[in-house]
């Protein structure tokens, strides 16, 4: 009986260990044709802050494991956005945006991909950690994708700036106020 228990224990822990070590490594390249922008709104008009892809690292090593046919988990899949890469169209809006995200103190916005759960062909739910000004929040949102030599991954991630302890700037003695909701709109061209 002790031998049977010992064999079962060894097999169980052996299977657990091999499952943990089954993450695969891959390097992905985000192509310059990719697009990313942050859109916000004030009580007067909206604004777009477009990210210049030249500020993006070209290749990203990632680790992933497929738990189930439609579920992929990731390790170390972090996209770092240098805040200097955002251009909102004019000087005062750029200045306000960089004050909002505290880019002097925190020069990067981090987007860490945790998992993808495919819903149907060409669409999935992505789970990410977003870190802005040292505050990290987990978000789940829908993405669309196409497979091929170059994959296209697109989606819109809605954020509340208050979740990141950010204080929206007020202009003209509080008459112009930035609203709390912003969106990150992306269309990434990825080569494996």
Automatic annotation (TrEMBL):
Residues 77-189 form the Lipid/polyisoprenoid-binding YceI-like domain. Residues 1-21 form the signal peptide. Pfam families: YceI. Gene3D superfamilies: Lipid/polyisoprenoid-binding, YceI-like. InterPro entries: Lipid/polyisoprenoid-bd_YceI, TTHA0802/YceI-like_sf. Keywords: Signal. This is YceI family protein. It comes from Autumnicola psychrophila.
């Amino acid at each position: 009986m002790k031998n049977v228990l010992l064999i079962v224990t060894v097999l169980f822990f052996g299977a657990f260990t091999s499952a943990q070590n089954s993450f695969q490594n891959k390097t992905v390249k985000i192509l310059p044709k990719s697009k990313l922008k942050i859109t916000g709104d004030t009580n007067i008009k909206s604004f777009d802050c477009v990210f210049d892809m030249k500020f993006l690292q070209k290749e990203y090593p990632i680790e992933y494991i497929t738990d189930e046919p439609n579920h992929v988990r990731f390790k170390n899949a972090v996209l770092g956005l240098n805040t200097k890469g955002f251009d909102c169209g004019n000087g005062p809006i750029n200045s306000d945006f960089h004050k909002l995200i505290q880019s002097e103190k925190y020069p990067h916005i981090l987007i860490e991909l945790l998992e993808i759960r495919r819903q149907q062909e060409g669409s999935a739910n992505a789970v990410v950690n977003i870190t802005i000004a040292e505050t990290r929040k987990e978000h789940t949102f829908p993405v669309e994708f196409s497979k091929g030599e170059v994959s296209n991954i697109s989606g819109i991630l809605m954020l509340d700036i208050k979740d990141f302890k950010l204080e929206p700037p007020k202009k003209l003695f509080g008459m112009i106020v930035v609203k709390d909701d912003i969106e990150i709109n992306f269309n990434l061209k990825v080569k494996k």
